[in-house]
Amino acid sequence: MRVPIAHDLPREEVRRRLRERSPEIASFVPGGIAEVTTAWPDEDHMTLGVRAMGQGIDGTVIIEDHQVVFEVNLPLALSFMEPMVAGAIRDKGQKLLAKK
User: Which domain of life is it from (predicted)?
Assistant: First the structure.
């Protein structure tokens, strides 16, 4: 699943905001029991792993000039939730990029 979020920020600012705010991602998962891991294989790609309630979701965040693309690999058991997950990613992703 690909979820693009438009932005008008310089790439460096997008990187800074994502790096600073990535610990907030766990709070986006209902129940407060999510474990989130992130890594930066290069300056424009952040890998993401979310584990909660026995399920895991892995993905990549790709920083582009005018958008950030969240690529998420939903397990088959959760594929019915794709529209809900995409909506949550759009909403929370915009909050991660918003100016504090």
Answer: Bacteria
CA dihedral in degrees (88, 91, 94, 100; nearest 10)? Answer: -110
* Domain definitions of the chain by residue range: 2-97
Strand residues in the chain grouped as ranges (E):
2-6, 35-42, 45-52, 55-63, 67-73
Mean pLDDT, rounded, for 70-99: 88
Cα–Cα distance between 32 and 4 in angstroms, integer? 25
CB 71 within 8 A of CB 82: no
What CATH class does 2-97 carry?
alpha beta
Q: How far apart are CA 29 and CA 87, in angstroms?
A: 13
* Confidence (pTM): 0.87
- pLDDT digits over 21-40, tens only? 988 887 777 666 788 899 99
Mean of the per-residue pLDDT values of the chain: 89
